[in-house]
Amino acid sequence: MAPNGMEAREKPEESNPRTEDETVYSTFSKTSKRWISIAASFSAMFSGLSSFIYYPAVTPIAEDLNTSIERVNLTITSYLIVSGLAPLIIGDLADRAGRRPLYILTFTIYFAANVGLALQDSYAALFSTLTDARSTNTAPSLGPILGGVVAQRLGWRWIFWLLAIFSGCQLLGMILLFPETARTIVGNGSLSPQALNKTIGGYLRSRRVPVITPEPSATRKARWPNPLAGLSIVLDKKSALTMLVGGIFYTVYSCLAASLSTICIDLYDLNYLEAGLVYLPAGIGGILAAYSTGKSKSREPLIMLCD
Fold this sequence. Notes:
With 307 residues, this protein is mainly alpha-helical. It contains 14 helices and no strands. Helices cover 70% and strands 0% of the residues. It is globular and about 65 Å long. 23% of the residues are buried.
C-alpha cells in the first residue's frame, strides 16, 4: 500500500487531465500580442484622424468648389452620423465573421473613398463619398496640424491622398500579417481558421503549439448581423449614464471643433497652418487627461486592497 503522501501527490494528476491548449488563455507570443495591439491601435486612429485632419481645409474646399462653408460642414455631420451607426453593424459582424475580414473590408472602402475624394471636383461627389470614408489619442492634436500643413503647402486634395497612402500601407500590412484574433474563430489561437481568416504570413510562420482543426459540428452557422444587439447596453443604467456624459461632451466638442478653424481664419486672418495649430492645446490636454486618468485607474485597485 502506498504512503499517504504518494496518494496526495497522485490525485491532482488523475483529477486534472486538461491539455495544454485548455489551460493557456492565448497561444500568441508576447511579440505577436505587442504587434497586434500596435496594428489595432494604429487602425483605430484613422477614424479620429479623418475628421480632425479635415477641419483646417473647410475654407479652401468651400472656395475651390464654389460652395458655402455651411454646406461643407454638412459633410462633417454626415461623416459623424455614419461613424455612429456603422459600429452597430460592424461590431456584431466582427464577432461572428472574425476581426481580420472586417479590417480588410473597411480599410478597402476607406482607401477607395479617399482616392475618390482626392479626384472629385464637385460638392455632390464630396458629400456622397465622405460618408463612406469611415474606418474603424493623437488625432485631436496631430490631425489638424497635419491637415493645416498639407492644405497650406500642397492643397486640400493632398489631405485625402495622404490618408489614402497611410490606409493603403495599413491595408497591405493587414492582408499580409494581421492574424485572426476572434475567439469564436480561433479559440485561444490554437485553432486553424478558415481560408478567409488566414494570413499570407501565417502559412510561412511556424507555430509552437500544434494547430487544431475544429470539428465540423463546432463550426458556428452564419447569421446576418443584428444592428440592435449593441443597443441592449443602453438598458444598463451605469453604461447609459457614462454614454450620456460622453455623448454630451463629444457633441459640444465636435460643434466647436468643426467651426473653430473657419472662425479663426475669418476673424484673425490666419493661414491654414495657423488654423490647424489652434487645435493643439485641446489635443495636448486630451492626451494628458487620458494618461493621468489611466494612471489613477491603475492605482485604484491598490488603494482598495490597502483599505
